[in-house]
């Protein structure tokens, strides 16, 4: 089982994250925040929250370690759908392709859809959505441009 990596827009409230993860049976000491080193904690860390720059797009990263992911029994998308409404933050998850600019956006109402990120911003280290490929209920403000039929 691999680690999950979720990218949230804005800063995530650590207390809110701990509350949400407690619903999944994760105790607070298994949630590492930023500079906390895993070897300074007792036990096996479940997740690591790295707060990003609030001026950048989806810059806050939540790494969920394999030891947490395996017993959890949720896909990366399902975990994002669980966390986004509780944290009040949109989330990007890998779409499972090799295309670095294609993601799945999970809105704060848990609706989701495929999005394309801005390649130019990504080169500057800023993960920002350029457009959605179909309407997303929880993100009606996004421009929608369908992908060409040959894109798979």
Q: Could you write a compact summary of the structure shown?
A:
The chain is of the alpha+beta class. It contains four helices and eight strands. The chain has an eight-stranded mixed beta sheet with strand order 2-3-4-1-5-6-7-8.
Question: What would your notes on this structure say?
Answer:
The chain has 152 residues and is an alpha+beta fold. The protein has one domain. 22% of the residues lie in helices and 24% in strands. The protein is built from four helices and eight strands; from the N terminus they run βαβββααβββαβ. A hairpin with a 5-residue loop joins strand 6 (102-106) and strand 7 (112-117). Helix 1 packs across helix 3 (76-87). The model has no long low-confidence stretch (mean pLDDT 90).
Distance between the termini: 25 Å
Choose one word for the global shape.
globular
Strand content: 15-25%
Q: Describe the biggest sheet?
A: 8 strands, mixed
User: What is the radius of gyration?
Assistant: 16 Å
H/I helix tally? 4
Number of domains: 1
Indicate the structural class.
Answer: alpha+beta
Q: Could you tell me the number of beta strands? A: 8
Percent range of helical residues: 10-25%
User: What are the segments in which pLDDT stays under 50 over at least 5 consecutive residues?
Assistant: none
Question: Helices, strands, pairings?
Answer:
Elements: E1 4-8, H1 14-22, E2 31-33, E3 47-50, E4 60-64, H2 66-72, H3 76-87, E5 91-94, E6 102-106, E7 112-117, H4 119-123, E8 129-132
Parallel strand pairs: 2-3
Antiparallel strand pairs: 1-4, 1-5, 3-4, 5-6, 6-7, 7-8
Helix pairs in contact: 1-3
């Amino acid at each position: 089982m691999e680690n999950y990596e979720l990218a949230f827009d804005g800063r995530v409230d650590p207390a809110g994250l701990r509350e949400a993860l407690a619903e999944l049976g994760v105790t607070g000491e298994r949630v590492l925040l930023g500079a906390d080193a895993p070897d300074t904690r007792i036990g096996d860390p479940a997740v690591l929250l790295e707060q990003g720059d609030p001026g950048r797009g989806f810059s806050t990263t939540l790494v969920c370690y394999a030891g947490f992911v395996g017993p959890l029994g949720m896909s990366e998308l399902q975990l994002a759908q669980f966390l986004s409404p509780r944290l009040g933050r949109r989330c990007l998850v890998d779409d499972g392709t090799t295309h670095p600019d294609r993601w799945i956006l999970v809105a704060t109402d848990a609706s989701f859809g495929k999005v394309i990120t801005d390649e130019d911003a990504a080169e500057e280290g800023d993960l920002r959505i350029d457009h959605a490929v179909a309407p997303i209920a929880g993100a009606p403000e996004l421009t929608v441009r369908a992908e060409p039929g040959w894109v798979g």
